[in-house]
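FORM 12-B: Structure-to-Sequence Request
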């Protein structure tokens, strides 16, 4: 039903976006703002796929059609029960095929002005990949560099509070970027969902103003940065953020205090450093956890792991680092927003 299909450029014309893929597909990534109204549940899609391979396409279609009909009936009674008479939904599935067509037909029979997305999620995903290549070079970046514990992320978020344009990669990735950087109680997004969030953030920026960004490696936890963004970061102006050593230790003790609530997990994370550090050194660090010697542990991690790692990674990538503006930050101070404004004033001057 070609007349029911619309292109991706028409997204803004609709009252609601309805993703009819399985909950697993929806959880991996979706068009921003979409709701999930699956016409096949996770297990049902497996059943249909197995029938298609092991029995016949006809049998898979027959069984699948019955499942789809039941699920559409349920959504009409629940998910869409309160939609007004003039509701205009846009429906999509993986490729704009039978799953989205089935729901779109029924919604139109109800009197709603439903359309399905031509090419489905696959078309949307292609647009994200195109944007990841095209958008990053459009902006001027100011990269906050500095060793772990210097408060770069806190400064970045303070800059956002003052009205600066900020690309907060660690917030998008739900990860602090280091070995111990997992965010307590929160899972990271999939690579696809991370890229969707990144594109949305980039589209909100004006190319007339600089974008502040924190120096990151290629990966933040389990997600990877796109090549075009890494290339732009590595050639951008830098601000070298420094903090006094004792303040860095205090900052890390505050940020990573939760790690001591699960000492075995903490020690398992540190054990991944064997190879970069001797087994004896890592065993010593694990012993400091058992002794609750928190300041001593983070002092050694700063001196023996974090600072050497920062020197190795930054010098080889950020070409403007030798001419970076130095900025001393007090990351634990209550006036962090004032410090951010001072940095902005210095850069404007």
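FORM 12-B RESPONSE
SEQUENCE OUT:
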């Amino acid at each position: 039903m070609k007349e029911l299909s619309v292109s991706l450029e028409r997204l803004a014309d609709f009252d609601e976006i309805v993703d009819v893929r399985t909950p697993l597909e929806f959880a991996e990534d979706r068009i921003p703002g979409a709701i999930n109204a699956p016409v096949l549940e996770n297990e049902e899609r497996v059943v249909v796929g197995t029938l298609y391979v092991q029995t016949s396409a006809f049998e898979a279609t027959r069984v699948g059609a019955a499942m789809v009909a039941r699920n559409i009936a349920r959504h009409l009674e629940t998910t869409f029960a309160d939609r007004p008479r003039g509701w205009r939904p846009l429906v999509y599935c993986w490729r704009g095929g039978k799953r989205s067509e089935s729901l779109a037909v029924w919604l139109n029979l109800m009197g709603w002005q439903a359309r399905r997305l031509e090419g489905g999620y696959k078309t949307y995903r292609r647009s994200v990949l195109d944007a990841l290549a095209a958008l990053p070079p459009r902006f001027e970046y100011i990269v906050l560099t500095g060793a772990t514990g210097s408060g770069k992320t806190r400064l970045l978020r303070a800059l956002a509070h003052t009205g600066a344009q900020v690309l907060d990669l660690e917030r998008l990735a739900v990860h602090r970027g280091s070995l111990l950087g997992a965010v307590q109680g929160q899972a990271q997004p999939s690579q696809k969902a991370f890229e969707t969030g990144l594109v949305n953030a980039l589209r909100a920026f004006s190319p007339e103003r600089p974008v502040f960004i924190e120096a990151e490696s290629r990966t933040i936890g389990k997600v990877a940065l796109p090549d075009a963004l890494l290339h732009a970061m590595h050639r951008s102006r830098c601000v070298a953020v420094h903090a006094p050593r004792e303040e860095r230790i205090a900052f890390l003790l505050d940020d990573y205090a939760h790690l001591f609530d699960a000492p075995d997990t903490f020690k398992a994370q540190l054990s991944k450093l064997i190879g970069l550090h001797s087994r004896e050194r890592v065993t010593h660090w694990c012993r400091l956890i058992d002794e609750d010697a928190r300041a001593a542990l983070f002092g050694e991690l700063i001196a023996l792991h974090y600072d050497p790692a920062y020197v190795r990674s930054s010098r080889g990538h950020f070409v403007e680092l030798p001419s970076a503006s130095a900025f001393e930050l007090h990351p634990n101070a209550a006036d962090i927003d004032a410090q951010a404004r001072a940095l902005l004033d210095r850069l404007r001057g």
